[in-house]
């Protein structure tokens, strides 16, 4: 069948009839994409949108960036292999060159690279196996609000309990620690703006002989919780967690699957706190928009046997070509600094003023071009820490109003009450201004509609 001239409605109906009930985005973003370039996508009805979802942060350079397209075309024209398992090629070696160049010297100089299956969750599973093998321990430390993927081990470390309902075979031994979420502090009225209480809790727990679990194999952390609602960790807390784990020989694994490669205003999120992790999981942006996942880790952990971790599609050569081009472009054009500047423009000129105008905007937060706006019930009483109950219905209306005005944003956070911004890092000042104005109009319309209901 040819789909030329077919509209959104027909394709959406066909998709609903043929695809799994587990599909997500089409339920809230009811369009079929026909063309895409840069920060914009055009649907089958001819309507154009700013894409602030961008493959859940995968498209660092946006859709069909010339350097990515050229890299893939060049690989195909030269008859490079498409798939090699873990057999090396010039394409693969060039990718690793760029990957290691992107990392701080004190990490990359002693680093090993493990190619995994093609998704970020595969990198998490590999990292779990890595630290358990290296330490001989089984229990792992994760955080409330965390999201690391949907495979068994990754899902077991997830903070959201809704996704775990009805599942009885999750990985045992996961200890969920308090994350320093300033707006909804796990310590209530005591607050925890700098994460000092959360860090002290972790240290006291690990030193307690009655803690209830054995020595951990590793600690897994996002330094900006992505699906958790764009919640950034304070740098002071990150440094304390690094000290605590190092003093106790607990490998610290930083999940940079969504934060990595410039999104937070540094090439990698752990650089904000000037710490060196033991391992980093990467996917999304490092594949240039194509499926690719790796774990980069200190050589001291490299004790597993040949074949201990494999994966058929760890040899995705087109993704390596696209990834090399993307990494090089990000570094050569200082896109981390650009992301910081555009994020500041969006946040300071548009998002934070919304919080000043509307009680229903409870919190604005994030780093670089990884931002979140949390919506709350303006008529409800605040808790002891000053936070009102989350309002996912209002957040859903904002998403719909934004979509109808030509802006794609998704929701995350506790109860899906946070609108999240993950635009391509190449978004320019004019586009950022348009995005801010459209979102402002969407919030105004959604709040006013709620007030008149």
UniProtKB/TrEMBL annotation:
| Cofactor names | pyridoxal 5'-phosphate
Top-rank taxon, per record: Archaea
Know the name of this protein?
Aspartate aminotransferase family protein
**InterPro entries (UniProt xref):** Aminotrans_3 (IPR005814), Aminotrans_3_PPA_site (IPR049704), Dat (IPR004637), PyrdxlP-dep_Trfase (IPR015424), PyrdxlP-dep_Trfase_major (IPR015421), PyrdxlP-dep_Trfase_small (IPR015422)
PROSITE patterns referenced in this protein's UniProt entry, alphabetically = AA_TRANSFER_CLASS_3 (PS00600)
Keyword Transferase carried by entry: yes
Gene Ontology MF terms: pyridoxal phosphate binding; transaminase activity
The keyword Transferase appears for this protein: yes
The UniProt family comment states: Belongs to the class-III pyridoxal-phosphate-dependent aminotransferase family.
Keywords assigned by UniProt, alphabetized: Aminotransferase, Pyridoxal phosphate, Transferase
Q: From which source organism is this entry?
A: Halocalculus aciditolerans
């Amino acid at each position: 069948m040819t789909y030329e001239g077919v509209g959104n409605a027909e394709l959406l109906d066909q998709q609903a009839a043929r695809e799994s009930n587990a599909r997500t985005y089409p339920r809230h973003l009811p369009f079929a994409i026909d063309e895409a370039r840069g920060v914009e996508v055009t649907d089958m009805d001819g309507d154009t949108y700013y894409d602030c979802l961008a493959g859940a942060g995968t498209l660092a350079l946006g859709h069909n960036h010339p350097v990515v397209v050229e890299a893939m075309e060049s690989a195909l024209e030269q008859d490079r292999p498409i798939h090699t398992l873990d057999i090396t090629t010039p394409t693969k070696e060039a990718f690793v060159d760029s990957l290691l160049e992107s990392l701080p010297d004190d990490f990359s100089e002693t680093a090993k690279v493990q190619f995994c299956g093609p998704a970020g969750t595969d990198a998490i599973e590999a990292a779990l196996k890595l630290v358990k093998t290296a330490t001989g321990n089984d229990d792992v430390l994760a955080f409330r609000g965390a999201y690391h993927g949907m495979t068994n081990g990754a899902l077991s470390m997830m903070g959201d309990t809704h996704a775990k309902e009805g599942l009885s075979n999750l990985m045992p031994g996961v200890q969920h620690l308090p994350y320093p979420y300033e707006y909804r502090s796990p310590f209530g009225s005591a607050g925890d703006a700098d994460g000092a209480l959360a860090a002290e809790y972790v240290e006291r727990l690990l030193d307690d002989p009655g803690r209830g679990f054995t020595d951990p194999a590793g600690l897994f952390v996002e330094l900006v919780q992505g699906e958790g609602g764009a919640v950034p960790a304070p740098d002071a807390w990150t440094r304390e967690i690094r000290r605590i784990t190092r003093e106790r020989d607990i490998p610290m694994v930083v999940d940079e699957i969504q934060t990595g490669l410039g999104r937070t205003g540094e090439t990698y999120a752990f650089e904000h706190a000037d710490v060196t992790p033991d391992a980093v999981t990467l996917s999304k942006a490092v594949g240039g928009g194509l499926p690719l996942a790796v774990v980069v880790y200190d050589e001291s952990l490299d004790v597993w046997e040949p074949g201990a971790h494999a994966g058929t599609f760890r040899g995705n050569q087109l993704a390596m070509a696209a990834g090399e081009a993307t990494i090089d472009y990000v570094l050569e054009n200082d896109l981390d600094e650009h992301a910081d500047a555009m994020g500041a423009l969006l946040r300071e000129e548009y998002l934070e003023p919304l919080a000043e105008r509307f009680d229903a905007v409870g919190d604005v937060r994030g780093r670089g071009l990884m931002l979140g706006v949390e919506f709350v019930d303006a008529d409800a009483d605040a808790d002891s820490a000053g936070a009102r109950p989350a309002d996912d219905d209002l957040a859903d209306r904002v998403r719909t109003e934004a979509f109808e005005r030509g802006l794609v944003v998704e929701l995350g956070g506790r109860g899906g009450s946070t609108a999240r911004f993950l635009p391509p890092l190449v978004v320019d000042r004019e586009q950022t201004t348009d995005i801010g104005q459209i979102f402002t109009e969407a919030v105004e319309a959604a709040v006013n509609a709620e007030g008149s209901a």
